[in-house]
Amino acid sequence: MGGCNLNIYISNMGDDTIESINLINYKKKICKIQPFINYTNKYRQYKSQQFFGPHRLIIDKKRKKLYSLNAYDNSLGIIDLEEFILENLVYAGNYPNSGVIFKEYILILNGDSDCISIYDIKHETIIGQIKVGSYPQKIIYNIKYDKFAVSNMNSDTVDIIDTLGFNIIKTVTVGSKPSCIIFSQDEEYLFVVNTFLESGRNGTISIIKMKDLTLFKSIEVGKMPISIRESNGILYILNSYSNSLTKINIFNNERKEMFCCYMPSYMEILGTKGFITSSGENKLYIIDINKMELIEKLQTGKEPQGFVIDQLGP
Predict the structure, then answer these.
(1) Selected residue with higher pLDDT from 201 and 295
(2) Would you call 286 exposed, middle or buried from its count of C-beta atoms within 10 A (0-12, 13-18, 19+)?
(3) Which percentage of the chain shows pLDDT scores above 70?
(4) I need a surface site. Which of 54, 174, 258, 296 has the fewest CB within 10 A?
(5) Residues linked to residue 194 through DSSP beta bridges, in sequence order
(6) C-alpha–C-alpha distance, residues 104 and 284, integer Å
(7) What is d(CA 11, CA 150) in angstroms, rounded to the nearest whole number?
(8) What pLDDT score was predicted for residue 169?
């Protein structure tokens, strides 16, 4: 990572800020999500006070924008990456909790209305909706198969959606209360995190073959897994209830687990490093994923949640 500009953008749900940290020189910038000029939103979750609750982020390198999905205000914040200032706030749907850029649109999951809002980036407005399963949690796009996948927590299913007419082509039943989903690096498999929530059972990872959309395998993990990443045949699973990071070799099931932090909320992998936000400690933890050891921890804003890493060339 030497010789590069490496920035991480973190959504701090508890103080309505988006934080930029340069991971080379540790310089910070703060963008406050706040009422925009002439901005009113009758669809706010909290009517008496203006809370926004930035929960997840989407980076748009083509347009040099950062989009903040604000769960409490049901809005989408549009941030200029170069100036790192809020440009606009627009209505995004009922509890926007995940989104993905596709061509000139952002497909935004609305957790509380069981649908996807199709947001037109140029005109900054919603132009349509797609019905999905109950309480959807995550949407991702597979380039190889040109399909979207959506995890539906209360339906115990994953919807597979085409890109031509945005139609559900198959619904796959998985484990209990699926939340996070990712594709393998070769995009041949879909990994589904099943949380089992209040049951007290260990969570599982369902593995779906993208070629024929069949359930291939299930792997047991820790209690209440909430985030998953894959790197070179190794799965890294963040377990919220046990405050741990589990490392599993897909091929031989060899595994290792470490305590990572209190109330972990989100994870990304870059090279040999794992980045984990701790909403209970207001910190960003950096882990050596080969040794499964802590490298360092950085102070963040209040209740850090989702984040994106932007690696720029020299």
Answers:
(1) 295
(2) middle
(3) 93
(4) 296
(5) 178, 204
(6) 32
(7) 22
(8) 97
pLDDT in tens, 239-282: 988 899 999 998 888 999 999 999 999 999 999 999 999 999 99
d(Cα 233, Cα 219) in Å, to the nearest integer?
Answer: 14
Contact 224, 214 (CB under 8 A): no
In which residue are the tokens 């549009």 written?
78
Q: What are 120's two structure tokens?
A: 């037109």
- In angstroms, the CA 293 to CA 3 distance is 25
CA-based angle 279:111:124, to the nearest 5? 95
Which residue type sits at 44?
R
Which tens digit of pLDDT belongs to each residue from 38-90?
A: 665 655 555 545 789 999 999 999 999 999 999 998 999 999 999 999 999 99
CA 149 vs CA 24, 112, 207: distances in Å: 34, 18, 13
